[in-house]
Amino acid sequence: MPxxxxxxxxxHKTDYGESDIIITLFSASRGxxxxxxxxxxxxxxxxxxxxxxxSKVSFNGFIKHPLALTRIDECQLLxxxxxxxxxxxxxxxxxxxxxxxxxxxxxxxSNPELFELLDDLFTFLSDVxxxxxxxxxxxxxxxxxxxxxxxxxxxxxxxxxxxxxxxxNPRGRFFNFSPQTGGLVCNHCRPRHPAAFNVSQGTINLxxxxxxxxxxxxxxxxxxxxVEAESARLCRALLSWHSxxxxxxxxILERYIDNNGIYKIAANTTTxxxxxxxxxxx
Length: 282
Ligand SMILES: [Zn+2]
Fold this sequence. Notes:
- 34% of the residues lie in helices and 19% in strands.
- It is of the alpha+beta class.
- The strands form 2 sheets. It has a 5-stranded mixed beta barrel with strand order 1-2-3-5-4. The protein has a 3-stranded antiparallel beta sheet with strand order 7-6-8, with no helix packed on it.
- The longest helix has 19 residues, at 225-243.
- The protein is globular.
- The structure holds zinc ion.
- Zinc ion binds at residues 158, 160-161, 163, 185-186, 188-189.
- Zinc ion binds next to loops.
């Protein structure tokens, strides 16, 4: 029986029976792992406050069978990221990213860069009251995670006929994004891609450059509302296409916060007063 010891983030959890919890971890060296923590609801000694969403933990367990749940024997808390749970905007956006990881990453496939990205993202979400360009940073994290999951959009030529995007050539001026092909399609080919939608040249330019930004620039850059909205639409269409489902966390997010990051509810609403059990049961 191979034993496993690693650091990981809690990306999903659900009660199972009277005392067990089924957890999805995203670990540093094995990627996503579906686990069961036997007796976790009763044992404060083996699981001392360590099974909350977003928490970074160190765990011990074993894999009984390649297709079975990994059994977690012990889980120690490294970083709780409690501030995310306390700020509504952070929590709702954080749940969206947890759902992306849960639905779109492959089971037991190492992705150390994605592990690092989650650490950066949760640090950012813990510091929300001090972040000025919140929406823009969220869009950049969304683009980064898509790239690390292997869904980076192809934005230089038509993925159907191969013609290059070229502003000087009337036939090369096309700005339609097709989630199905994972990139651009020209106006001539668009009828064959019913799910394709328009994106502006500004958005394409930005998406082509976004992966080159370092952390310092990410903190300074700001998008126009149009670029923000188009970038979100493009990423969400890609994620939905690859996962084959719509994201429950997004529906909750859109119910409480509009596209400009403004609350649709009383500002003092807390995460506890929201029934967010469709995703991220706490
Ligand atoms: Zn074409």
